[in-house]
Design brief:
Layout lengths: L1 E8 L4 H7 L2 H18 L4 E6 L4 E4 L2 E4 L4 E9 L2 H8 L11 E6 L7
Antiparallel strand pairs: 1-5, 1-6, 2-5, 3-4
Length: about 110
Amino acid sequence: MNKYMVLYQSPVSGRQRMADATPAQMKASMDEWTAWRDVVGGENVEFGNPVNAGKCLEGTEVTDSTTTVSGYSILKADSLDDAADLLADHPHLKMPGCSIEVLEFLPMPGL
């Protein structure tokens, strides 16, 4: 199986989304995520974490990050298409303006 980086993109930062959610909303959201994980197979998913905007380093310049990435996971699947299929019903996609990007990890020869 191959490994894939799953990037959750959102118009709202992970920190803001959590700050705005009630405990009941947080539980309901986590219940949806764990239900998705159980369907996909828990051994195939590393949940990862929500993330907050950080810094962007380009050469010697450091600026505030403008990324829309609000979290990540790592997923195992036989192919990129299979990984995309496993994410088709992901709860993140139910939130307005949200999307998921899937990137394949490449092997590093000699490492």
